[in-house]
Amino acid sequence: MRVPLSWIRDFTPADAPIDALVAALNQLGLEVEGVEDPGREVLGVRVARILEVLPHPDADRLRLADVEFGDGTTRVVCGAPNIEAGQLVPLAPSGATLPGGFVLERRTIRGQVSDGMLCSAKELGLGDDHGGILVLDPGAAPGDDVREVLGLDDVVFDLSITPNRPDAMCVMGVARELAAHLGQPLEIPIPEVPTTDHVVADATVVVEAPDRCPRYLARVARVTMGPSPVWMQQRLIKAGMRPISNVVDVTNYVLLERNQPLHAFDLGRLAGRGIVVRTAEVGERLRTLDDVERTLEPDDLLICDAERAPQAIAGIMGGATSEVGADTTEILLESAYFERMGIARSSKRLKLRSEASARFERGLDPEGVAVHADRALELLVEVAAAEVADGVVDVYDRPAERPTITVRTSKVNAVLGTALDDTRVAEALSPLGIDVSGSGDALQAVPPSFRPDLEREIDLVEEVARRVGFDAIGRTVPKPEHQVGALTTRQRARRTVADALVGAGASEAMTLPLVAPAVLARYGSGDAIELANPLRAEESVLRTALLPGLVAAAGFNTARGQGAVSLFEQGVVFRQPGDAASSDDAPLPDEREHLALVLTGTVDRRPVEDDRSVDGFDAVDLLSTVTVALGLGAVGAGTVALDAGTGSDRPGWHPRRAASVVLVVDGTTSVIGAVGELAPDLVGAAGLSGTVAACELELGAILAIAEARRDSGDDYVAPSPFPPSAIDLAFVLADEVPAGVVVTTIRDAAGSWTESVRAFDEFRSDDLGAGRRSLAFTLRLRAPDRTLTDAEVADVRGRVIAEVERVHDARLRG
Amino acid sequence: MSLERLGESLDAALARARAEIPEAPDLDAINALERALMGKRSPSATAKESIKDLEPGDRPEAGRLLGAYSKAVAALLAGRRAELAAAESLGGPLLDLTLGGHGRRRGHLHLVTQVRRELEDIFVGLGYQVAEGPEVEDDWHNFEALNIPPAHPARSMQDTLYVRLGHEEQVMLRTHTSPVQIRTLEGQEPPIYVVAPGRTYRNETLDARHSPVFHQMEGFAVDRGLTMADLFGTIEAFAQRLFDDDSVRTRFRSDFFPYTEPSAELAVSCVFCHGDGCRVCSHTGWIELGGCGMVDPNVFQAVGVDPEEWQGFAFGFGLERIAMIRHGIDEIRTFFDNDVRFLGQF
Fold first, then answer.
1. What one-character-per-residue DSSP string does A404-427 give?
2. Other CB atoms closer than 10 Å to residue B26's CB: what's the count?
3. How many C-beta neighbours within 10 Å does residue A809 have?
């Protein structure tokens, strides 16, 4: 909201340097977003009287104006059509400066010397009217600085008003706050409206929806339409509004000054010379002033003529039919108080916001309706030669009651941590228009009707805080006595996971959880939760997996010339809600904590070793750094294992180069994700090429196991001081038998002396035959209490061979 | 052979060993010397052979001499062998370490995670615990219990992303981390001191200045007798640790949030220019960091906590904003591009 200081000074001296005013406004919570000095760049522009207008000898569209500017005369070339002898206009002589740093020079235009120029409003930085030279009010004197004449020697505060303070959305409200803060007087003149009895106040008002329209006041006046005076236009422009006509400008002026939205209907166009306030019928239509045909619903409140034809959407926007125009001679001025929530609902549903609706929905002053209308009429008399009928139609059946609020000084101090006394509290509140009575720890405060936000004791505590200033409040640091500050085991484990991955070379990404359904579908991650109001189709559903976003991030990097990318992301994915606990509860998604990894490009190891492409093993290794860091051993060592399964179970993954990640707990296996290489079509779709190794799994499941294991109390194994025994075995196996499964068979068959089992060679040959391969394993045994004998080792070897041959239809290679 | 002869013979052999072994040029020479000094026809072999011919009384002394000889020669041989092995391993090809190595690299935590951890750790130090809540929320937790009833103008302050669950506008991506306040109060009796970092959402398109996703950290304390001075002091203590500078000051200005009253916008004195004016603080000497206030009694009542017995405060920071201030990052979009050249700088 833009507030000119000169306007504030109509009501209070605001006698302080600009910096101090800015600081005061900020402290009061009327945040100053900007301070403008519109005339700062207008230098040396003076008022000039046009003596004579002559045609330009060599140009049809240009004319020559002889002007007098107080202490001299000169001639300028002018292209504007609206100049006439006798007018007072702004003259920017050579040497003057205009907004943009433009300095005028003496120029020759089509052979005629022009000593400067006459200015339009736009050229002076006043709005966008470039239709002609700005004609000044006759009161000015040639030679005067135009800054003073136009009020450009002003300062405009651009304020951000919080939604709880409708009263401060006007010049008077800001003046009231400043007056209280600076301890300076606030004077609100009572409008004087001369009325006449030869204009008949015969208009009728019927309010059919008093809940939605608690007060409706109508005044009737004859007016002479025309432009409003320059002073009014300049104030409107400085406040950010466009001048339209004297009548409309007056309603806007009062809106800005006093926060009362007003509407002037052309009474001649109101059928039946009356108003009916009613709710809309289903599907009823109205063309609003912005020339949009609006379809209404029964929750919308309408201002209609006496024949019930809609003329305006109450409190939001007028209709085109009864709009005042150049031929208007008689107006009905509406000043009303509409129920705020109704306005908010209609405004939101119609996606139609206006200066009026923004104020009504925050709550205005029902008691101000009449006096603010008077102010408008006072101005109409001045600027539109109004003749005001002396009758007032004021439908206000249930006047608003002002609440009485008990304010305990003890509570004020308890909340603020201050030591104010009763007097100080009362002194803080009174200048805001709050009537304070009583004493002791129970002051009785009655807020003014223009402060609908003051309803409770705490609201007044805040007013006291604003008035005494937050700087008056101390600084103490409370110490929680009932708890120790700490992360939970789960929270620390999450950090461990990220740290392990970072240590292993991966960087953490954060991708948008809002994704395109088509992208999710490629990963077979369907049934995503949809956004109801997405801005873009690309961000219209909630992710059910992290990988689509992470792969896209890898593609982004590749497109920017990054060869090898190693990224991970920890975050939630969203599945459709499970069975709702009860129908009363809102169905919330099933949020699962996931981890995803992506590796692309070459493993860059020059110059000591050859570069190579990443492959699925890299993803498994990276996953192992996580499981090891969480104390669960490497992938395949027990708790977290791989299951080749069938490729068709894993959409998005390469059918022959990926595996499911399974969690093995108490002999029960559950699939928690997948690891390996992505399907080539996905790789291409992300703008990547070559092998993309990846992993995605439900991290929450792994963290839960790690957490459960953490305090098991008996998982320590003392290091044996005795030497290990190694057994190397090679088996010929069918390709379908996964090495990891054989490892498990060997480990189980070898029994409790098993220290480790590792596959170390894979070999194929014509001799072995198609579809078969040789896999070699190293089994390390170690007993905790002694060196194993040769016989014991041989015994284990025999058991392992027999078991692998039996279970996997294998043959020991000789 | 007498004991005397035997001794002389070993002494002579040992003298040769001492002279020749340290000079042996290579392993072959050492092996030849070992055969000559310890082998089959060596002086020691001859001496060993002759022990049985000695007087029985002299035999122990002869055995001792033989043992000493063998030990001394073996030590000389081992010493020279080690010297030669060391000399050999010190040769070989030159390893130019400036070529670069195996390319084992460290990754980087996302900058938001780094800021988040830092904030968590500061508040853990102040005795807080870290609370969490879902990213998709219902109207009750995101709005209504926070004193933002339907059609409240504050709702239009936040462009909410709703999801198609429940009835219209019932379920949404949380617009702030404040619903964690409600969930914490619903699940736990006061006193409560928690911070709740997390992801939040707004209906905005990703560009230089806007993002549909960003991160906040909510702080929330409920205890008997907590005051606004406690709030301000906590913020100031936090800011001093965040910038590792005890001279940092905080400034509070009246503001409005539906769930706190009184509410304040919070700013810290600029740690970059110390008030002289710089780009970071827009030449104001102050950096706006977030909002805060005393928990509104309506919030307490919504969750059945007696506002006469308990008072509380709440505050919130934007994690991206803190990172942007600290590193001079000017576009929020960069946080979600995941360009490794961005991630790798922090």
1. -EEE-HHHHHHHHT----HHHHHH
2. 10
3. 11
Using DSSP's 3-state secondary structure scheme, residue A560 falls into coil
Nearest to A470 among B252, B339, B340 (CB): B252
What's the confidence (pLDDT) of residue A646?
66
User: Distance between CA B280 and CA B260 in Å, rounded?
Assistant: 28
Q: Using 50, 70 and 90 to split pLDDT, how confident is the model at A328?
A: very high
The answer to whether the CB atoms of B337 and A556 lie below 8 A apart is: yes
A103 — phi, psi (to 5°)? -105, 130
Residue B225: closest CA among B114, B327, B125, B307 = B307
**Distance from C-alpha of B235 to C-alpha of A738, rounded to nearest angstrom:** 58
Q: Which of A482, A6, A567, A472 is nearest to A236 (CA)?
A: A6
Contact across the interface for B161 and A531, Cβ inside 8 Å: yes
Question: Are the beta carbons of B161 and A28 separated by less than 8 Å?
Answer: no
Q: Indicate if the alpha-carbon torsion angle B281, B282, B283, B288 is positive or negative.
A: negative
- Compute the CA torsion angle A742, A745, A746, A751 (nearest 10 deg): 160
Q: In the prediction, which pLDDT does A606 show?
A: 67
- With beta carbons less than 8 A apart as the criterion, state whether A310 and A319 touch: yes
Phi first, then psi: give them for residue A23, nearest 5 degrees: -60, -40
Q: Which pTM value belongs to this model?
A: 0.84
How far apart CA A195 and CA B162 sit, in angstroms, is 54
The Cα–Cα gap between A526 and A652 comes to: 12
Using the beta-carbon criterion (under 8 Å), do A476 and B225 form an inter-chain contact? Answer: no
The alpha carbon of residue B341 is apart from the nearest alpha carbon of chain A, in Å, by 9
Residues of B in contact with A164 (CB under 8 A): 256, 258
Amino acid A602 reads T
Please tell me the distance from the alpha carbon of residue A528 to that of residue A512, in angstroms, as a whole number: 15
Q: Distance between CA A633 and CA B182 in Å, rounded?
A: 39
Residue A592 CB partners (closer than 8 Å, separation 6+): A572, A573, A575, A698, A700
Stronger pLDDT, A696 or A610, i.e. the higher one: A696
Q: Which of A29, A471, A473 sits opposite B256 (nearest CB)?
A: A29
Q: What is the pLDDT of residues A142-153, one digit of tens each?
A: 988 888 888 788
For residues A527 and A544, give the distance between their C-alpha atoms in angstroms, rounded to a whole number: 8
Q: Which amino acid is at B218?
A: E
Instruction: Tell me the chain A residues in contact with residue B140 when contact means C-beta distances shorter than 8 Å.
Output: 586
C-alpha pair distances (Å), B63 with each of A32, B3, B46, B52: 106, 10, 13, 11
Whole-Å CA distances, B270 to A293, B116, B235:
52, 21, 15
Cβ atoms of B59 and B51 within 8 Å: the answer is yes
Pairing between β-strand A565-575 and β-strand A507-508 as defined by DSSP bridges: parallel
- Provide the shortest C-alpha distance from residue A589 to chain B (in Å): 7
Backbone torsions φ then ψ of A574, nearest 5 degrees: -120, 120
Look at residues B145, B176, B146, B147 and name the one whose alpha carbon lies nearest to residue B159: B176
Residue B106 DSSP code: -
CA distance linking residue A463 with residue A432, whole number of Å: 9
Q: Taking the C-alpha atoms of A701, A706, A711 and A716 in order, what is their torsion angle to the nearest 10 degrees?
A: 140
Buried b (16+ CB within 10 A) or exposed e, A572-589: bbbeebeeeeeeeebbbb
Secondary structure in 3-state letters for B294-332: EECHHHHHHCCCCCCCCEEEEEEEEHHHHHHHHHCCCCC
Tell me the one-letter amino acid at B44: S
- Contact yes or no for A365/A205 (Cβ under 8 A): no
pLDDT < 70 stretches in chain B:
153-154, 156-158
Q: At what angle do helices A489-503 and A699-710 cross, to 10 degrees?
A: 120
Nearest partner of B130 among B217, B224, B216, judged by Cα: B217
The answer to whether residue A556 neighbours chain B at the CB level (below 8 Å) is: yes
